[in-house]
């Protein structure tokens, strides 16, 4: 029987939550890719969508008349998809590639979530919590401890609130314990 | 199932009305068996609805490691090879139903596979298609079928 790694499980679970409409209050995420390569980084999950949800009749009219039509994306990388383990350099590279993609695709903003299979290291807490570029919300999450660190900008804070990453990590840690 | 119910419910109603008219014209409208006779409208109505659904809307996708075929109502809608595509994604339609989108070129021509109308699990099926496109899957001789539930 094939074994599936914990971080891959987490990415799959996050994807399932998003397909179910988890992020609908902040973005209408429509398309989900796995193993998506941007320059030198292969992201485990790449999701793209917009801030204007589609809906039917009334909700569509409301979205058309009241909501801005921005293109947005979510990128997700796990420590297992980078060789050996996640380092500060690899995370910075992923951030650079994500920002490159934001520019290329003319996205208003993007989320970048990195799943680690160990505790969030001190360099990670420092790097992420001090990150303040407005077009990229950043998060580091540990599948071992459930710890979630997000960037201080508004997009980063929405990873906790709108995406419910804390709840996802609680569930992962709970499942792991049982 | 909900699609089948949508197809069937008008026929259930029509058959029930017909039975009622027949019973009334035969002078049997007060018979204690009236409810039992009227209940026959459900199997008859669902049967008619299912026949029409299978002929018009039933989606079936057959595939192997080389190619895939999409049938709708028994007619072939699409037949293509996996190798003609380079990228696959799960795409949500306007009602939030997950279908597969196959790209011939990134951000270019694409083809949608309506897997939300079958019993296929979107993530598993997407992963399978991804291995087909990248050509890493070992050959299998069987021809699996996913069919509307």
Sheet with most strands of chain A: 6 strands, mixed
- Please tally the helical runs of chain A, counting DSSP H or I stretches of 4 or more residues: 6
Total strands of chain A: 6
CATH class (first level) name of the largest domain in chain B: Mainly Beta
Structural class of chain A: alpha/beta
What count of domains describes the coordinates of chain B?
A: 2
Order of H and E elements of chain A: HEEHEHEHEEHH
What gross morphology of chain B would you assign?
A: rod-shaped
Largest interface: A-B, 15 and 16 residues
User: What is the highest CATH level, the class of chain A?
Assistant: Alpha Beta
- Would you give the CATH topology of the largest domain in chain B? PH-domain like
| Arrangement of strands in the largest sheet of chain B | 3-2-1-7
- CATH architecture field of chain A: 3-Layer(aba) Sandwich
Averaged pLDDT of chain B: 85
CATH architecture verdict of the largest domain in chain B: Roll
Terminus-to-terminus distance of chain A: 21 Å
SSE string of chain B: HHHEEEEEEHE
- Main pleated sheet of chain B: 4 strands, antiparallel
Shape of chain A: globular
- The portion of residues assigned to helices of chain A is 25-40%
Structural summary, described in words:
- The complex is a heterodimer of chains A (178) and B (149).
- Chain A is built from 6 helices and 6 strands, in the order αββαβαβαββαα.
- Chain A is an alpha/beta fold.
- Chain A has a single domain (6-177), classed as Trna Endonuclease, Chain: A, domain 1 (3-Layer(aba) Sandwich), CATH 3.40.1350.
- Chain A has a 6-stranded mixed beta sheet, sandwiched between helices.
- In chain A, strand 5 (136-142) and strand 6 (148-150) form a beta hairpin.
- Chain A is globular, with a radius of gyration of 16 Å.
- The mean pLDDT of chain A is 87.
- With 149 residues, chain B is of the alpha+beta class.
- Chain B folds into 2 domains: 2-56, no CATH class; 61-147, PH-domain like, CATH 2.30.29.
- In chain B, the strands form 2 sheets. Chain B has a 4-stranded antiparallel beta sheet with strand order 3-2-1-7. Chain B has a 3-stranded antiparallel beta sheet with strand order 4-5-6, with helices on one face.
- Chain B starts with a helix and ends with a strand.
- Residues 136-143 of chain B have low confidence and may be disordered.
- The chains are: A alpha/beta (178), B alpha+beta (149).
- Chains A and B meet through helix 1 and strand 1 of A and strand 4 and helix 4 of B.
- Strand 1 of chain A pairs antiparallel with strand 4 of chain B.
